[in-house]
Amino acid sequence: MASKPPPSAEPQSTAELDRSCLLAFAVLLLAGFAFRVWLCFNDDGIYWPDEIYQSLEPAHRLVFGYGLIPWEFVEGARNWAFPGLLAALLKGITLLLGDNPRRYLVAIRLVFSVIGMATAWGTYRLARTCNARPIEAALGATWFALAPPAIYFAPRALSETASALAVVFGFALGLQRDGAKGRVLAGASLLGFSTLLRLQNGIFCAGILGTLLARRRWRDCGISALVLCAWALAFGLLDRLTWGDWFHSAVAYVRFNVVEGKGAQWGVSESTYYLRVLWTSMPLVTVWAAPFSLLAVRRSAGLLVTACVYLLAHALVPHKEFRFILPLLPIWFALAASGLSWVLSLLSVDARWPAAAIASCAAVAGARFHSLTFGQLGQYERERPSASAYDDFGAVNRLLLAAHAQPDLCGIEVEAVHLAWSGGATYLHRNVPIYPRGAWAGANHFNYVLSFGGAHRGGRIVATEGPLALVGLPVSSCSPDPSYRWKLP
Q1: Per-residue pLDDT tens over the stretch 77-116
Q2: Nearest Cα to 215, choosing from 167, 174, 170?
Q3: Is 130's pLDDT higher than 60?
Q4: For 122-131, what is the mean pLDDT?
Q5: Using CA atoms, how far apart are residues 409 and 124, in angstroms rounded to an integer?
Q6: Interval 390-394 mean pLDDT
Q7: How far is CA 149 from CA 47, 264, 293, 347, 467, in A?
Q8: Alpha-carbon torsion 304, 310, 313, 316, what sign?
Q9: Cβ neighbours, 10 Å, residue 31
Q10: What are the φ and ψ backbone dihedral angles of 243, each rounded to 5 degrees?
Q11: How far is CA 279 from the centre of its chain?
């Protein structure tokens, strides 16, 4: 009678991802990408103003010379790395497709969706680095591809979604056990670059150094430390060149949010907020991923501790938003894949059947991505928790696109919402004043109003979106406004 293989044996090895498994995972990954592409063409909404005013609007100002300026880019509380990269992307797109705002907005969303799917591939790579077998690693990538929050945030120009790609590949390369010098350099560089995109990712930089030290990989830790120091120098130099002082944006950001605690003005949540919204936004995925990620301690203790520290640091900050932990999601799913692989190897279980059951749950969760509400995402929980999270303020932005097409446009008042919840010059794409609600029309500085209802000040309705209307005012000619400033109120 044949003896059972030891727990560490891998009876399927390279045969684990047979043709049927490959086909199934490919279909699921394509479904995740298709959901993202659908959003690119059908969601003009805003989750939070940062996806416009920390990224697209400053990029638009760099490329075209005008755009609304938020307080962060007045006081220098953000560095220019992310908007600068977006500006290069925007310039390239407009050279290829022209400067029609609908075209370049969809193109940018598609690029971010591709970044999201590349992050899914990074989840697979990191899971393999954490000793997951191919089938469980592919399952981790599928979790990320079909997780409703990952789909929801994918097309949005947020530093969190962009930096997640650099984070997951940084760990996947930097923690590979062969210790190849090139991989160590690349891994540390990606983590350093991710910190330029999002300051909080510095926790991951400390995490990889701690993990390498714990594994007694002295040479790799030294190389990584030198590379990360170089990226820290690049961060400071960028601030010196753009804001005039070394590390100006980091100091201003920490002072505003930590020392002065002003970030709390946008809401305060309990310390268990992130655990709660992970469950409410994707319960089917969480019920599998949460326990198995903890079991990864047997194979990837350092990465698990780093992930926990990152989550804890964000839990201690009073103002919380789901997007803040987006760079953590691919790590979490890779750890879950590693933990699942360890359990199935220990039990000598054929991985295909459990994987099929778990992948089915991920598929069901992904297919329901469009049912997400703000309450499930932990946003606007007191104001409108049952409202759909999709296309929020999308009507405003489509009316801005309609205003862009008006040849006589000389200025517009956005009366329907606060300017922060509009697409600004990125959507309007006309070098004309954009006034907030309550602007005085007597001086004839603008000739269109985006408002609620129909007739407005004797004007004509040009376009409507639900209760909103773009109204042309009976202004014969516009007069210049020498006092206009592009600062976002």
Answers
A1: 999 999 999 999 999 999 999 999 999 999 999 999 999 9
A2: 174
A3: yes
A4: 96
A5: 50
A6: 96
A7: 12, 24, 18, 32, 29
A8: negative
A9: 19
A10: -110, -10
A11: 19
Secondary structure in 3-state letters for the chain: CCCCCCCCCCCCHHHCCCHHHHHHHHHHHHHHHHHHHHHHHHCCCCCCCHHHHHHHHHHHHHHHCCCCECCHHHHCCCCCHHHHHHHHHHHHHHHHHCCCHHHHHHHHHHHHHHHHHHHHHHHHHHHHHCCCCHHHHHHHHHHHHHCHHHHHHCCCCCHHHHHHHHHHHHHHHHCCCCCCHHHHHHHHHHHHHHHHHCHHHHHHHHHHHHHHHHCCCHHHHHHHHHHHHHHHHHHHHHHHHHHCCCCHHHHHHHHHHHHCCHHHHHCCCCCCHHHHHHHHHCHHHHHHHHHHHHHCHHHHHHHHHHHHHHHHHHHHCCCCCHHHHHHHHHHHHHHHHHHHHHHHHHHCCCCHHHHHHHHHHHHHHHHCHHHCEHHHHCCCCCCCCCCECCCCCHHHHHHHHHHHCCCCCCCEEECCCCHHHCCHHHHHCCCCCEECCCCCCCCCCCCEEEEECCCCCCCEEEEEECCEEEEECCCCCCCCCCCCCCECC
Compute the distance between CA of residue 130 and CA of residue 122 in angstroms, rounded to an integer: 12
- 24 has which bridge partners? none
Please state, in angstroms and as integers, the Cα–Cα distance from residue 379 to each residue in 40, 283, 405, following that order. 21, 17, 33
> Would you say residue 4 has pLDDT above 50?
no
Question: Residue 465 corresponds to which amino acid?
Answer: E
Rounded to an integer, what distance in angstroms lies between the CA atom of residue 470 and that of residue 452?
9
Lowest mean pLDDT among 186-195, 210-219, 290-299, 362-371: 362-371
Listed in sequence order, the residues at least 6 apart from 460 whose beta carbon sits closer than 8 Å to its beta carbon are: 471, 472
Q: Which two tokens stand for residue 234?
A: 């690049």
Domain boundaries of the chain, sorted by first residue = 23-375, 394-472
Which residues 6+ apart lie within 8 Å of 103 measured at CB? 93, 97
Our CA dihedral for 123, 163, 191, 170, rounded to 10 degrees, sits at 20
Over residues 263-278, the mean pLDDT reads 91
